[in-house]
Amino acid sequence: MKNAGKRMRVCILGSTGSIGTSTLDVLSRHPDRFEVFALSAQNRVDELLAQCLTWRPKFAVLSELHPAQMLQTQLRSAGCDTAVLAGPHALCEMASHPDVDAVMAAIVGAAGLSPCLAAARAGKRLLLANKEALVVGGALFMSAVRDGGAQLLPIDSEHSAIFQCLPEDRSRWGARIDHIVLTASGGPFRTHDVTTLASVTPDQACAHPNWVMGRKISVDSATMMNKALEVIEARWLFDLAPEQIQVVIHPQSIVHSMVVCRDHSVLAQMGTPDMRVPIAYGLSFPERMASGAGLLDFPSLSALTFEPADIQRYPGLPLAWETLRGPEGSTAVLNAANEVAVAAFLAGAIRFDDIHRVNTRTLEVVVPQADDSSSVEGLIELDVRARRAASQQMEHLSR
What we know:
By secondary structure, the protein is an alpha/beta fold. Helices cover 43% and strands 15% of the residues. A hairpin with a 4-residue loop joins strand 10 (255-261) and strand 11 (266-270). Helix 15 (330-346) packs across helix 17. The longest helix is centred in the C-terminal third of the chain and has 20 residues, at 376-395.
């Protein structure tokens, strides 16, 4: 690793979100091992200001120029010499900065693709919490990881669990795996009457029973679209065929995922539902270090249960396998449609069950072309087309 014997310099993209703040909590426990080089937030000026005053990073990034200028003025008034940058280019600049050793990619949505690609091409230790980089980028992103010599470490609890169950030597993965099983809590509506789901509110959808997450990913958990995106992510992370990926409901969120080996033995990673565990593992890999998470108390566990995913309750889940078998770029269309639909639901513009309608109708009308997935520009244009189509589908929803 670069800077051997020195503290690892970390860039956190999305530092004010749940993954970003959990990352800072882990780093605070190991000041001798890590230093914060750069932080970024979309538009949370006050929160980013507080983080900069605490961590004194060399750089901070906001999405727009005016908030960035406000933050810079406030930092100078407080005697903090952090330099504030603005815009997507600045995110890529920080992700690929020669002084950065590790990048925590925690920006939600397709906006994280370009900085993730920049980090991959620059050969960084890339802690991937942005599943959309693989859902949208797929082969292009994995090619950048290989060509740049990056060290790709999954941070989603499910993919980290699979990673922890596999040998460090990636060349041995194919000989080990028969298939993998991604676990899902089932979200807040696992036992609700399916006929009542049309009337659920955004606050109800965001009340996850086990995990503390942002509102967008909480809604995705309620629809199980998060699991659909994780299936797509797993296909690329572990070089699996779609049929080698299964999903099972595990309401307790103690078993984070499983590898079924070729001899049909099953390896499972278990722990409390705390994102600091996969974050600490990604930062310290191949070692392990204290994460701050609580110990799993086996005597207090009354049961660990598993059940199939109800497709009537979670109709979006099968779209993962459908898009993986469809034209390349279909997964990017699904992601774009879902981001538009979830944002509309959170804004009160559509019903909860309309999210799936928007996703399926967008997939019907936007057919990726052969060259859409061959470049970042092509993927961005495909994303724009899909978002435009999703917005149009919302206008045509019938009650």
